[in-house]
């Protein structure tokens, strides 16, 4: 009987080479880039918290609520007049949650007297839209725009009518 496997080495080599070809200069550059990104991230967080703080106080809510992670979303839903359980939809239901989050941004803009276009800005670039809304002199809280609405559609536009001047011929 011919055993073809008798000459095989059955010992396994489990060593792992952990040497790196990264130079010290490249490591320092990566650390510097990481520090820049961390500082940028921290700046975005500070801007968003300050913006939400200002928006909450404009709506008569406590500003400190902007610091508490889940509670700040519940307060935002109260400001626009949506039920608290919408937060569960945003967090737990994949595609419907995305739609509900967009509707919340549209309603937020309308609750401060802005248009749907401004709500789209809030949805797409919140780090720019929220500070503009919070620190704008002409963005005032007009009330919960979605109070009593059914379904998952955005609140209707509020059209501000200017006083109509009577012409001399109508007097």
Question: What is the helix/strand order?
Answer: HHHHHH
Helix content: 40-55%
Unreliable residue runs: 166-171
How much of the sequence lies in strands comes to under 5%
The tally of beta strands, per DSSP, is 0
Oligomer: single chain
**What's the helix count?**
6
Measured between the Cα atoms of the first and last residue, the distance is 123 Å
Shape annotation: elongated
Largest sheet: none
Overall SS class:
mainly alpha
Overall pLDDT level: 86
Rg result: 28 Å
Could you list some keywords that capture this structure?
171 residues; mainly alpha
Short note summarizing the structure:
The chain is mostly helical. It has helices at 24-58, 69-80, 86-92, 94-111, 116-124, 126-134.
3D architecture notes:
The chain has 171 residues and is mostly helical. Helices cover 53% and strands 0% of the residues. Helix 5 packs across helix 6. The C terminus is likely disordered.
Describe the secondary structure blueprint for this structure.
Blueprint: H1 24-58, H2 69-80, H3 86-92, H4 94-111, H5 116-124, H6 126-134
Helix pairs in contact: 1-6, 2-4, 3-4, 4-5, 5-6
């Amino acid at each position: 009987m011919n055993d073809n496997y008798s000459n095989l080495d059955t010992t396994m080599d489990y060593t792992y080479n952990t040497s790196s070809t990264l130079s010290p200069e490249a490591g320092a550059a990566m650390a510097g880039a990481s520090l820049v990104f961390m500082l940028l991230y921290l700046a975005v967080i500070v801007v968003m918290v300050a913006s939400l703080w200002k928006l909450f106080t404009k709506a008569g809510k406590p500003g400190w609520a902007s610091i508490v992670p889940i509670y700040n979303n519940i307060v935002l839903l109260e400001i626009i007049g949506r039920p608290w359980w919408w937060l569960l939809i945003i967090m737990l239901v994949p595609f419907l949650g995305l739609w509900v989050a967009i509707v919340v941004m549209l309603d937020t803009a309308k609750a401060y007297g802005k248009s749907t276009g401004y709500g789209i800005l809030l949805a797409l670039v919140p780090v720019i839209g929220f500070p503009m809304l919070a620190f704008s002199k002409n963005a005032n809280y007009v009330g919960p725009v979605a109070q009593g609405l059914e379904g998952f559609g955005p609140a209707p536009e509020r059209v501000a009518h200017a006083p109509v001047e009577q012409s001399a011929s109508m007097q």
